[in-house]
Amino acid sequence: MTVSAAPAGGTNSTSPGTADVLYQLSGVRRFFGKKGEVVRALDDVDLSIGEGEFLAVQGPTGSGKSTLLLLLGGLDRPTEGHLSFRGRDLGGLREHELAPLRAKEFGFVFQTFHLIPTLSAQESVEAALAPFGLHAAEYVRRSAAALDELGLGGRGRHLPAELSGGEQQRVAIARALVKNPTVLLADEPSGNLDENTRDEIIGLLEGLWRERGLTLVVVTHDSSVARRAERIAVIRDGRVSAKRSAQA
Amino acid sequence: MSPFFATYLRRQLSRRLREAVFVALGLALGVGLVVAVSAASAGVAKAETGVLSGLYGVGTDMTVSGPPPLTAQAQAAAKCRRSTARVCSIAPGVQCTRQGPDLLCGSGAAIGSAKTPTGSAKKSAGDGEILFPPLNRTVSASTVASVARLHYVAVATGVLTLVYQWPRGTYSVDGVSTGRTSVGPLSAARVLSGRYFTAADSDADVALVDSAYAAVNNVKVGSTVTIRRVRFTVIGVVLQPQGTSPPDVYVPLARAQALGSPDKHDVGNLANQVNLIYVAAARAADIPAVQSEISGLLPGDTVTDAGSLASEVTGSLSAVNTLANDLGRWVSALALIAAFALACLLMMGAVAHRLEEFGTLKALGWRTRQIVGQVLGESLVIGIVGAAVGVGLGFAGAAIIAAIAPTVSGTLVNSSGVSSAIGSMQQVIHNGGDAPVTWGAVTVPLSPSVSIGVIVLAVILAMAGGLLAGLFGSWRAARLRPADALRRVE
Fold first, then answer.
1. Higher pLDDT, B301 or A26
2. CA of A159 to nearest chain B CA: how many angstroms apart?
3. Cβ of B362 under 8 Å from any chain A Cβ?
4. Domain boundaries, chain B
5. Other C-beta atoms within 10 Å of B102: how many?
6. pLDDT in tens, B14-66
7. Distance from B490 to chain A by nearest Cα, in Å?
8. Confidence of residue B101 (pLDDT cuts 50, 70, 90)
9. C-alpha–C-alpha distance, residues A48 and B389, integer Å
10. Distance of alpha carbon B451 from its chain centroid, rounded?
11. Is the CB of B182 inside 8 Å of chain A's CB atoms?
12. DSSP line for B324-391
């Protein structure tokens, strides 16, 4: 089964249009052993994601969406099948080869934010720059700029516990974007937020995608969020069961 | 190292202060105990050294003495004790009377007790007096010269130790060389008043008295001390190091030897005789060689070094020594292991709470070694804090030990012969030579001391403990698969 990009507001397609293919998944399976049973989180997934594409991965809870996102981010490996990023076999890379990829190419936004509770907003953003070995002043300058861009210029010294859910997610987005990644992988980014904040965050992500031209993959169970994507991949029981364009 | 390392470290320690304090305190307790026990051990060693150096004299490596009580008089005293007769003679003119557990000996009608002299001051000089002969076999001064000429010997000096008893009391007398030597009973003494012997005093009736004896008997420079009707003029009062049992009176060796003569039936001829030789080796490493040389020269004599003398110290000094060196080390080792284990457990617990955090850091592109380094850095700082607090606790513990155990006593069971002229004599008089011979009890101040070496050791131990705890903690973080950590909360 192949899911491919469709142009915004366009029709079904088997390839990511004119864009270069960034990800290529062929027969990807991810199984887990649990109490003697095999859980098929992903089962025979074929998927292409184009560079600069905005893809929504939609499905019910437990369908394998987050597992797919972890595979795309190099945080997990397929049990079987082939997963490539810019032609490199992500599943075959070793940990010390994956770490630089995660540092430079992938930005993550999680449903539960995953902000480090002891670090302030600015320090949380700086944490994403730690693998680059920058000068101290550069840390401050870039993290402050990222927070400013997300409208959190005055909240840099606040701890996560002192921020609202929406603000925490903005900090997480700033942390993901401060290193100018190629791909932004968002796992239910609005799952813990109220409706207004959800729209605000999704609008923010969409705006960043348009402005920066980065590839955006958003995992969601919310159709209103998925509809804003260029293309939607629907996952059910570990299988990509349908594909449709965003405005279909 | 990334500048963010310090920021992250600071935030972790300051905002997870309680966890950090628990780990640091665990390490500090273990380290504090090690420091306190080491300090107590050092204090005991110092006290023991004080006793031994006092018995030897500073600079002395060993002493040489003849076999303990073998004289005819001692054997006679033992026989006298076992007999059923109330009165018996142990030497011509010396009679002993059994009174309860004591054997009261003296010449003629006047009999004094070695334990509690009861002689009357009204008795004429000579009545009731007795100069006990040295119970170690004496050797001639030429033997001392032979010892001094041995290859590995730096210096040797002979001493004649005697006990003089008369109706007014009993005191011990050492006949010593009048030249200032680096070994011998006076080598560590300090002259409090008057002067030391000079070469010109070798045949003079002059004496030095110990400060304790002088204080009790109100003896000053210029006073006289009478030994066998010879009036010795006191020329100086000397102070021996604390914790020693010095003789009461020092007289020139030649004058001590002159106290005996062929016509003195109690001691016999002591001319040119000594019964104890103090020896210093050329180098510490030569001590075994010196022992071997002396054993060859004087077969049958006893060579006593610090090690063998220390093994003969009993009493609370020995008990404290055992406590500090054996039990204390075990306790501190166990405490240290427990502290390390506690620190490791606490650190692993702390890390377990941070798995999500480490998963996030991996998602941000942190390498495993960066995360491990971060955890180790935190552990190291905790270890340093633990060391500082532990050293403080150790000092406090040492102060408490010093406060609650200011003195300990040490008793030398003298089978080897050092200073046995006094101890053996008293024992023979009281027990007839059947019981082990003791060289009195001495009180030794216990002053625990914390050395720089111990502080360095404590810092190293605490830092090692912190790093060990960090390694255990970070080992788990290093093995963590980021997806597993993130799935825990997603």
1. A26
2. 11
3. yes
4. 3-44+317-407+448-487, 62-306
5. 17
6. 888 888 888 888 888 888 888 888 887 777 767 666 655 555 554 566 777 77
7. 7
8. low
9. 60
10. 18
11. no
12. IIIIHHHHHHHHHHHHHHHHHHHHHHHHHTTHHHHHHHHHTT--HHHHHHHHHHHHHHHHHHHHHHHH
* Banded model confidence at residue A84, pLDDT cuts 50, 70, 90: very high
**To which residue do tokens 């609005």 refer?**
A190
**What confidence tens digit (pLDDT) does each residue in B303-362 have?**
777 666 555 555 555 566 666 666 667 777 777 787 778 777 877 777 778 888 888 999
Rounded to an integer, what distance in angstroms lies between the CA atom of residue B115 and that of residue B170? 9
Which pLDDT band, with edges at 50, 70 and 90, does A245 fall under? Answer: low
Report residue B331 as tokens. 């306790």
Q: Is the ipTM of this complex over 0.90?
A: no
Supply A102's token pair. Answer: 């995660």
Lateral strand order in the sheet of A106-109: A106-109, A183-187, A215-220, A54-58, A231-236, A239-245
Nearest residue in B to A110, CA atom? B490
Residue with tokens 């000429």: B149
Tokens of B413: 């069971």
Q: Residue B200 phi/psi, 5° resolution?
A: -70, -15
**Are B364 and A116 within 8 A, CB to CB?**
no
Q: Which residue has the tokens 């001829």?
A: B269
Q: How far apart (Å, rounded) are the C-alpha atoms in residues A74 and A104?
A: 12
Structure tokens at B212: 């304790």
Angle at CA B336, nearest 5°, toward B330 and B341? 125
Which residues have C-beta within 8 Å of that of residue A63, sequence separation ≥ 6?
A235, A236, A237, A238
User: Position of tokens 């990807």?
Assistant: A28
Report d(CA A16, CA B125) in Å as an integer: 129
Digit-coded pLDDT (tens) for A134-154: 888 898 999 999 999 888 888
CA distance A102 to B360: 11
CA distances A91 to A24, A137, A184, Å, are 12, 36, 19
Q: How many whole angstroms from its chain centre is CA B38?
A: 16
pTM value is 0.61
Contact flag B5-A123 (C-beta cutoff 8 Å): no
